[in-house]
Amino acid sequence: MSDFTPNIRAFCCHYTSQQICAEGDEGLNREGFPKSVAIERLVCSGKLQVSAILKAFEDGADGVYVVGCPEDKCHNLMGSQRAAKRVGAVRKALTELDVEADRVEMYHLERGFHPEFVAAAQEMDRRIKEMGPSPLKGGKK
């Protein structure tokens, strides 16, 4: 068993994370939310730029994911669709750098406190633990 504890950044739109953040750290921990995930709330996932996702990796993240509204129910109409396209662009860039594209993911989730929000974090935690530390750390790539 590895001692590796991943550093995972979650960019979450205001509407999908509002109730989650109201739970606080204790509430999230009680639900099984991994401590390896740091949530950064956004006004809208559509505001997230490719450069911010890449910067998260540059700053030491082993994995990054974005949570936005369902594609057909985005509060800002197209925000979560724009975010998904940007996540796709980062996946392509990682592949070109010979880095696992699965280190970045997009989730479309409903508003409110849903088990899917915690499940997405657990999935990313499990996935990144299996992959190990990001090869982008320490200038290896």
What does this structure look like?
- With 141 residues, the chain is of the alpha/beta class.
- The chain has 5 helices and 4 strands, in the order E-H-H-E-H-E-H-E-H.
- Strands 2-1-3-4 form a 4-stranded parallel beta sheet.
- Strand 3, helix 4 and strand 4 form a beta-alpha-beta unit.
- The mean pLDDT is 89.
Q: Could you say which overall geometry the principal axes of the C-alpha atoms support?
A: globular
Strand content: 15-25%
The helix-strand sequence is: EHHEHEHEH
The major beta sheet can be summarized as:
4 strands, parallel
Supply the helix-strand structural class: alpha/beta
Query: First CA to last CA: what distance?
Result: 26 Å
Strand adjacency order, main sheet: 2-1-3-4
Separate helix tally: 5
* Topology, number of strands: 4
Low-pLDDT sequence parts? none
Give the key terms.
four-stranded parallel beta sheet; 5 helices; 16% strand; 43% helix; alpha/beta; 141 residues; globular
Summarize this entry quickly:
This protein has 141 residues and is an alpha/beta fold. It has helices at residues 14-22, 24-31, 50-58, 79-96, 115-131, and strands at residues 8-13, 37-42, 63-68, 104-108.
